[in-house]
Write a structure and sequence with these properties.
CATH architecture of the largest domain: 3-Layer(aba) Sandwich
Mean pLDDT: 97
Number of domains: 2
Distance between the termini: 32 Å
Helix content: 40-55%
Order of helices and strands: EHEHEHEHEHEHHHE
Largest sheet: 7 strands, parallel
CATH superfamily of the largest domain: NAD(P)-binding Rossmann-like Domain
Radius of gyration: 18 Å
Number of strands: 7
Shape: globular
Strand content: 5-15%
CATH topology of the largest domain: Rossmann fold
CATH class of the largest domain: Alpha Beta
Number of helices: 8
Strand order of the largest sheet: 3-2-1-4-5-6-7
C-alpha cells in the first residue's frame, strides 16, 4: 500500500497516536508534516529523524489547534495536502456541573473545531490534485459515553458527525473521509499514569492494566500506535476507495458491548 508521492499532514503529531500515525504513513512512502503547538528544536529534529529513517520529506510546522486561523494556516503553509489526519486532542475529567468553562471551550476547539478548519482548508487542495483522504482520529467515546467526560464525548461524537458530512460532500469525487475510533492506546501519557494508579489501588502493574485501565476493553489489551497508523494507511490505500463516511473501531471490542 504505497503512498509515495503523497503529502500527509498529521495534527498533534510530535508524540503519542499522532506520531505513530505519521511514522506509518512515512513508512508507506508519504511525505509528512508533523504538528503541535510548540516550536522546539526537538520538534524539528523529530521530523528530520523520520525523514532520514524512511527516505521521505518530513517537516514540522507549529500551529495552535485551538485557534481556527492557525489550523487553516498550517495547511496553507504545508503547500500541499493529499492526506489529512485530524488527531490533535486534549482531555479533562469532571462532573458537568463542576466542569470548568475554559476547559470545555478548549476541548471543543482542539478536538472538534480544529478538524473543521483544517478540512475546510485541505479540500480545495485535494480537489485540485484530483485525490484526497481525510482520516479523523475520533474515539470509542465518539460512539459511546462515559461519565465525567462531557466535553470529550461531545467533541468526539461531533468528529464522527463531521466525518459523515465531509464524506457526503465529497462522495462523487476521488476523496474519502473516515474516522478511526480507538479504545485505550498505550501511549507515553498512559504509560506515565500506570505507576500512580498502582499506588492508588495498591495493585501490581498487570492487575491495574486489566482491571482499572482496560476495564471496558474486552480484549484486555491496549491498541498500539502502530496499529492505528496501519489502519490509517489502509484507509488511504486504493483498497479503501469505496470506504467513506464510516467509523473503524480499534478498541478491543469495547463498542461491541
Amino acid at each position: 500500500m504505497s503512498l509515495k508521492g503523497k503529502t500527509a499532514i498529521v495534527t498533534g503529531s510530535n508524540s503519542g497516536i499522532g506520531l505513530g500515525v505519521a511514522r506509518e504513513l512515512a513508512r508507506a512512502g508519504a511525505d509528512v508534516v508533523l504538528n503541535s503547538f510548540t516550536d522546539r528544536d526537538e520538534d524539528h529534529a523529530l521530523a528530520a529523524e523520520i525523514g532520514k529513517e524512511f527516505g521521505v520529506n518530513a517537516r514540522y510546522i507549529k500551529a495552535d489547534m485551538s485557534k481556527g486561523d492557525e489550523c487553516r494556516a498550517l495547511v496553507e503553509q504545508a503547500g500541499r495536502c493529499d492526506i489529512l489526519v485530524n488527531n490533535a486532542g486534549i482531555q479533562h475529567v469532571a462532573a458537568i456541573d463542576e466542569f470548568p468553562t475554559e476547559k470545555w471551550d478548549a476541548i471543543i476547539a482542539i478536538n472538534l473545531s480544529s478538524a473543521f478548519h483544517t478540512t475546510a482548508a485541505a479540500l480545495p487542495m485535494m480537489r485540485k490534485a484530483g485525490w484526497g483522504r481525510v482520516v479523523n482520529i475520533a474515539s470509542a467515546h465518539g460512539l459511546t459515553a462515559s461519565p465525567y467526560k462531557s466535553a470529550y464525548v461531545a467533541a468526539k461524537h461531533g468528529v464522527v458527525g463531521l466525518t459523515k458530512v465531509t464524506a457526503l460532500e465529497t462522495a462523487e469525487e476521488p476523496i474519502t473521509c473516515n474516522a478511526i475510533c480507538p479504545g485505550y492506546v498505550l501511549t507515553p501519557l498512559v504509560e506515565a499514569q500506570i505507576p500512580d494508579t498502582m499506588k492508588k489501588y495498591d495493585m501490581d502493574r498487570e492487575t491495574v492494566i486489566r482491571e482499572v485501565l482496560l476495564e471496558r476493553q474486552p480484549s484486555k489489551g491496549f491498541a498500539t500506535v502502530e496499529q492505528l497508523g496501519g489502519t490509517a494507511v489502509f484507509l488511504c490505500s486504493d483498497a479503501a476507495e469505496q470506504i467513506t463516511g464510516t467509523t473503524i473501531s480499534v478498541d478491543g471490542g469495547w463498542t461491541a458491548l
